[in-house]
Design a protein that fits this description.
The chain has 298 residues and is an alpha+beta fold. The chain is built from seven helices and twelve strands.
């Protein structure tokens, strides 16, 4: 027995690879997790790089539009398409969207204008510079937002308040019927009027439908009563005070307005053009020079 044991020891010493092969083999699952982890890290790195390139191009476009206009501050720019850089190969930009806030527009005051161009034919360099000129686009969209301050100036109602007829919450959806509250020109007390907003041949109409309540006369401290207690002359004067027409040529974007609605306390006017050409400068409204108060401080 002892001799056999010694022989076995001598055999294994002479053949060490046999004992090494008895260790457990690496698990295939561990290798799979390493591969997946590597792919995840690579994917995250590529996504981050793609996002940084898009953000850099957005900043270039924003600064370019700011320097070429009278905007009070650089507009917000958003580029669509993922991965963004692959559009340099497809040579089609999915969308570029520009939102300019507090824009001083002659005749309107400070408004917000939202514009976008979709499916724009570009070359590879334009994907990285945003320097787009007269490029074919499938759709160009513009939206003018009139808050209560600029709209009140247009109507001569400084204390104007606007709410949806069906949903008066600030987040209510868009409607073509609304409730306007405010003190119309010539009166000393506020009224509440049901309104309709419409477009006809590109012109925008804000039309009173009925007075809900209002002052009995134009004097200071006039009593506010329901509409059925107002005389015809006062009712007619109140409705005229809430009536407004905005001509298409005065609206600060190209194209003919085709949609108007009320939402979130503002009036929105929209225009769309299909299969047209666009330059990046077309996505900002024509602005008047800034006043001293509007110029950014250094």
């Amino acid at each position: 027995m002892a001799r056999a044991h010694r022989c076995a020891i001598m055999f294994f010493m002479a053949n060490p690879q046999i004992s090494a092969d008895t260790s457990p083999a690496p698990r295939p699952r561990h290798r799979l997790w390493k591969v997946l982890a590597g792919l995840l890290v690579a994917s995250l790195a590529l996504t981050l790089t793609d996002s940084l390139i898009a953000a850099r191009t957005e900043a270039k476009i924003s600064q370019q539009l700011y320097e070429g206009s009278h905007l009070p501050k650089p507009p917000e720019v958003m580029l669509a398409g993922f991965p963004y850089v692959t559009q340099a190969l497809t040579k089609e930009l999915e969308a570029v969207t520009v939102t300019a806030k507090d824009v001083p527009i002659a005749g309107f005051g400070d408004v917000t204008v939202h514009s976008s161009a979709q499916y724009v034919d570009v070359n590879a360099s334009q994907i990285f510079t945003g320097d787009i000129h007269d490029a074919p686009a499938r759709k160009v969209f513009h939206r003018l937002q009139l808050g209560v301050v600029p709209l009140g100036k247009l109507m001569g109602i400084p204390d104007l308040d606007v709410s949806n007829k069906a949903d008066i919450s600030p987040r209510g959806g868009w409607e073509t019927e609304a409730i306007f509250r405010g003190t119309p020109k010539g009166f000393r007390a506020p009224a509440i009027v049901e309104m309709k907003v419409r477009i006809k041949r590109g012109d925008v109409y804000l039309r009173p439908v009925t007075v809900i309540e209002g002052p009995v006369n134009k004097k200071e401290g006039a009593e506010i009563v329901p509409a059925d207690q107002l005389d015809e002359a006062t009712t007619a004067a109140l409705m005229d005070g809430f009536r407004l027409k905005i001509e298409k040529d005065s609206i600060p974007f190209p194209g003919i307005p085709m949609r108007v609605y009320v939402g979130g306390g503002s009036v929105f006017i929209e225009a769309e053009d299909y299969y047209t050409t666009v330059s990046i400068g077309d996505l900002t409204p024509p602005t008047r020079p800034l006043t001293e108060e509007q110029r950014p401080s250094l």
